[in-house]
Amino acid sequence: MLTFVPKQTVVPSLLVLWCISFEGVDNAALQAIGVKNSLYDIPGLGERPLMIKAYPAVENYQSDLYEVYAEPYTYDLRAQAAIVVLQGEGENDVKGEIMFVQQHPPIGPVLIRGNITGLPAGRHGFHIHQSGDLRQGCDKLGGHFNPYLLRHGAPTDPIRHAGDLGNVEAGEDGKAEIRIVDPLVSLSGGPRGVVGRALVVTAEVDDLGRGGTADSLTNGQAGKALACGIIAYIR
Ligand SMILES: [Zn+2]
């Protein structure tokens, strides 16, 4: 999440507001801990708190970007969990189960944990694709999930596809253990929602957009899919 927190001084207040708005703290309590009235008494909103997710501007590329949420929320604010059962493409015996958990949707980070077995040793691209339609296996899933129409990058880059989760690394035994905290994807609805889309592990390493070719800025030259699965709600 830190990658996307802008440097403006107003942000700590916004983050505090976000943190405590889930605990039913009232206006007086907000003021007591120094949250500015102006963030709370928004004309037309009464005493409804705002949740704001902020993304910094990138010079010569994009302006500051904000997502602002106010009651009545159109998303379920309770913690959400989803599971991916990865199945090998074709003859591959790649398998895995990957859990996605978002404690505070729609703006909190998502914890991605799990294991993959049967991989060739080394690093492999790990991406969420636009579609979750597996009728043609892992082949026709569209590009990397890219709601903001940006270029391919590393998970830590301010400019990246939302679906860019970087690489996973398998040992000589073919096993990869995954533990990622991603600030951008979400399990709620909205522009960054990934439930219903496909998670893919690729044959080659993702160059994270540093390869110097057009493909590098599209898919990291990560090669064909070894395995894929749909991100599906658990409850
Ligand atoms: Zn990408």
TrEMBL record:
<dbReference type="Pfam" id="PF00080">
    <property type="entry name" value="Sod_Cu"/>
</dbReference>
<feature type="domain" description="Superoxide dismutase copper/zinc binding">
    <location>
        <begin position="94"/>
        <end position="231"/>
    </location>
</feature>
<keyword id="KW-0862">Zinc</keyword>
<keyword id="KW-0049">Antioxidant</keyword>
<keyword id="KW-0732">Signal</keyword>
<keyword id="KW-0186">Copper</keyword>
<feature type="signal peptide">
    <location>
        <begin position="1"/>
        <end position="27"/>
    </location>
</feature>
<dbReference type="InterPro" id="IPR036423">
    <property type="entry name" value="SOD-like_Cu/Zn_dom_sf"/>
</dbReference>
<keyword id="KW-0479">Metal-binding</keyword>
<comment type="similarity">
    <text>Belongs to the Cu-Zn superoxide dismutase family.</text>
</comment>
<dbReference type="InterPro" id="IPR024134">
    <property type="entry name" value="SOD_Cu/Zn_/chaperone"/>
</dbReference>
<protein>
    <recommendedName>
        <fullName>superoxide dismutase</fullName>
        <ecNumber>1.15.1.1</ecNumber>
    </recommendedName>
</protein>
<dbReference type="GO" id="GO:0005507">
    <property type="term" value="F:copper ion binding"/>
</dbReference>
<keyword id="KW-0560">Oxidoreductase</keyword>
<dbReference type="InterPro" id="IPR001424">
    <property type="entry name" value="SOD_Cu_Zn_dom"/>
</dbReference>
<dbReference type="GO" id="GO:0004784">
    <property type="term" value="F:superoxide dismutase activity"/>
</dbReference>
<keyword id="KW-1015">Disulfide bond</keyword>
